[in-house]
Write a structure and sequence with these properties.
With 257 residues, the chain is an alpha+beta fold. It has a single domain, classed as archaeoglobus fulgidus dsm 4304 fold (2-Layer Sandwich), CATH 3.30.2170. The protein has 8 helices and 12 strands. The protein has helices spanning 3-11, 85-104, 139-150, 186-194, 207-216, 220-236, 241-248, 251-255, and strands at 23-26, 34-46, 50-62, 67-72, 76-81, 109-113, 123-127, 133-134, 137-138, 155-161, 164-168, 177-180. The strands form 2 sheets. Strands 1, 2, 3, 4, 5, 6, 7, 10, 11 and 12 form a 10-stranded mixed beta sheet that branches. Strands 8-9 form a two-stranded antiparallel sheet. It is globular, with a radius of gyration of 22 Å.
Length: 257
């Protein structure tokens, strides 16, 4: 697609109409307590026939003002064989996150980073991006455009389909998110979550979800340490430097300097 076509596709949203009656205003509700779950993963080593990944999962519990409970898991290493190792790693990370969601779901809301793969009572998925489109134009972009006109400086949601919504959690935020929720009490749930979205550092997004994301993220330093640790263990087992290079040598890295 040429640059002109891209611009035309984006600004073609001015010619698209959506059902304005589907915008629903809601008020922020004080007193919310919620769990937030997130995970992080990184590929440590790639031998093409197999890859070694590191994953870390965690959750917190928070009210409007403070994080009141937090559990960050240890970094786990996992060797995955065959093609599609990265996709398989993502699936395993998701399953680990869902395992925690099932364990802690109950009276409090559980906020999940991303789209929901399973329907679990009380679990809400919040996504920064969405694959929904009208023609070539992202649907969230269109909904936000009309929502900012119709519901200016208000909290609102727009039902896309059963269990999937576009939601603006804070009146003065510039962000609208895809939200997955399969229960019957969307007004109440969105109202409660909105009370967690007033932190100036991530206005309009649950601060507790941003917090757990920061804590589970595997840093570059951790990645380098784990790579060196695995290498050290391999040398102790008798693998030579030459054998190591033959297994994990990346010619693309060499070409790029």
């Amino acid at each position: 697609m040429k640059a002109e076509e891209i611009i035309e596709a984006i600004f073609g949203a001015n010619e698209i109409e959506i059902d304005r009656d589907k915008f629903v205003e809601f008020n922020r509700k004080a007193g919310c307590t919620a769990y937030s779950i997130d995970g992080s993963s990184v590929k440590i080593l790639d031998a093409y026939s197999f890859s070694i990944f590191a994953r870390r999962i965690g959750y917190n519990k928070a009210n409007e003002e403070n994080i009141i409970e937090k559990k960050i898991g240890e970094i786990e290493l996992d060797t995955i064989y065959g093609d599609g190792a990265s996709a398989e790693n993502d699936l395993r990370r998701e399953e680990e996150e869902y395992k925690i969601a099932k364990e802690i779901s109950g009276n409090e809301i559980v906020i999940f980073d991303g789209c929901l793969k399973y329907k679990i009572d009380g679990v809400v998925g919040i996504s920064k991006k969405s694959g929904y489109r009208i023609g070539k134009i992202p649907l969230l972009f269109i909904i936000k455009k009309f929502g900012d006109e119709i519901m200016k400086n208000k909290c609102w949601y727009y039902k896309i389909e059963d269990g999937v919504y576009a939601v603006k959690f804070y009146p003065y935020s510039k962000f609208v998110f895809r939200v997955d929720y399969f229960g019957k009490y969307e007004d109440e749930i969105f109202s409660e979550i909105s009370s967690l979205c007033k932190d100036i550092s991530c206005l309009g997004y649950p601060y507790c979800l941003a917090d757990i994301h920061r804590h589970v993220k595997i840093s570059k330093d951790e990645e380098i340490y784990l790579k060196h640790l695995i290498q050290k263990k391999a040398f102790e087992k008798g693998i030579s430097h030459e054998e190591w290079e033959n297994i994990f040598y990346d010619y693309h890295e060499y070409m790029e300097g």
